[in-house]
Amino acid sequence: MESGYxxxxxxxxxxxxxxxxRATGALFVTTDENRSAQVALQEGRIVYLYFGNKVGASxxxxxxxxxxxxxxxxxxxxxLPRMELPSNDEILGQLDSAVDGQGAVGSSPVSDTAxxxxxLTERQxxxxxxxxxxxxGPIGEILCEDHFRQSCSLNxxxxxxxxxxxxAAQAKRFRDMVLTKLGP
Length: 184
Known about the structure:
This is DUF8082 domain-containing protein. By secondary structure, the protein is an alpha+beta fold. It is built from seven helices and six strands, in the order E-H-E-E-E-E-H-E-H-H-H-H-H.
């Protein structure tokens, strides 16, 4: 899927399809609120969940905040860690319940509306993408596409992209890497 957001229910249906097909790989999701989620599967078993800087059961609870998004599935062993999770049926049941109860809209922790700085150059965009992919993998492409649609300064773009990295230490490394590669 290359453009446009689809309802979260359709993303849950895709996860269910991948489970039924006994797929191995990672589903990378970016939401309409510029948040990222990841679901890793191994032979149809959901083995990793990430959303809103949370992993596992905590991420699953927060996934109910997703209203709509875009996704890409990368087939093959994901390299994401395996974790103790409820059964696929329980996970899909919780996601279905979240979809059924979606009257409450999740809040977006990062707002770009106050930033009226200069538009990013193509060189800056390429560098940000290159650095982000090192920390979050292929979902970095989707995250950059979404954040780059907004008119924002370099500093705001760095902040927004760093907020997508689960670990504070890695987010700091991302910032340092970008600033080093940009040079003086």
